[in-house]
Amino acid sequence: MPPAKIVNKTVLLLFVLGISAIFLSMMHQFLMTIFMAAIFSALLTPLYHRLLLLLKGRKTAASLLTVFIIVCLVLLPLIALMSVVVAQAIHVSESVTPWVQKFIEQPTIATDFLRKVPHYEQLLPHRDMILQKIGSLVDNTSNLLINSLSSITKVTVNAAIMSIIMLYTMFYFLIDGKKLLYKILYYIPLENKDEQQLLERFTSVARATIKGTLIIGIIQGTLCGTGFALAGIPSPVFWGCLMAVLSIVPAVGTAIVWGPTLLILILNKDFTGAVIIGIFCGLIASNADNLIRPRLVGKDTEMHDLFILFSTFAGISMFGIIGIIVGPIFAALFVTIWEIYGESFQEFLPAVSFGITTEAPPANPGEETTNPSGDALDLDK
Fold first, then answer.
1. Residue 110, Cα to own-chain centre: how many angstroms?
2. Would you say the pTM of this structure is higher than 0.85?
3. N or C, which end of the chain is more exposed by having fewer CB within 10 Å?
4. Cβ atoms within 10 Å of 313's Cβ, excluding its own
5. Quick check: 309 and 250 in contact, CB under 8 A?
6. pLDDT single digits (tens) 60-88
7. Which spans in the chain are helix H?
């Protein structure tokens, strides 16, 4: 290539990078809103296409109706729910200390048992201290949730503008999203199969996150909240929403809340409430996750549960509540881009084996490695 042409392309590339950096810096406060609009638009594309058929190809009307359905079925109920949750969270925060004092003073099964233990008077201060620590923990948790929810539910100019921008962007993404996507992919210097792999992973993980995290969380939170209401636990909507969020934690999930509640009800000799909590939370809600998740999610994520957990918490830490969706998506893209890297640079990467093997190493780095017994080594196990 002639030196003049090299200089020309170099200068052009510098201009592209410099102007792009300035533009992205100028748009940084809207980037997450646009990204969320892209996610929801991709998930709502099947609904948009159905409406497009019903409306005989009128794209504007189909897109507008799709956005209107989402506002009515998701956005408005979510705002109403968050308002109730914040009110109940404030009530929980204010009632924790009086409840702890009442629990300490009233007789329970544990109190009756401990009174038979020698030197019970010496153990009593420690019991009181433990209960006060538990009350302080609940108080801090509710205050944390209040602060998080308040940033979502308070009607501020910024929140209203971002919501309008997201809905407005979704309207145009549904109509022209495919054209925009093709244009973006054209400027990315990746092979078509790699671009398609990234797109497939993006959509599959977004779909799995919506179905696996949000839908299952809503189901478990609703079941557990119903159990709390029937058992006479105050502020059941607050506790139900808290358990919906905690349902993302593998193995324990909602039991972080209903487990101690069940124990307290037993200690208070409220066996009817304990049975209700055990049935709704321990039996129905816990098994609902095992029954529903495989059917909803399937193998869309192809990521370990622990990886999904950490990426979700990291996403919440960086992006707020929307990190529940964004965190796993970025984690999946991280894994996918490294898989593409492994395929593209396969000839430069050495073979990997564990232990001492008597067999010769594979001829090609991409072939399976072997363990000492000669069997294929499955690193996914």
1. 38
2. no
3. C
4. 15
5. yes
6. 999 999 999 988 888 888 777 777 777 77
7. 3-26, 28-54, 59-70, 76-105, 109-114, 120-153, 157-186, 192-209, 216-230, 236-246, 255-267, 271-277, 286-297, 305-319, 323-344
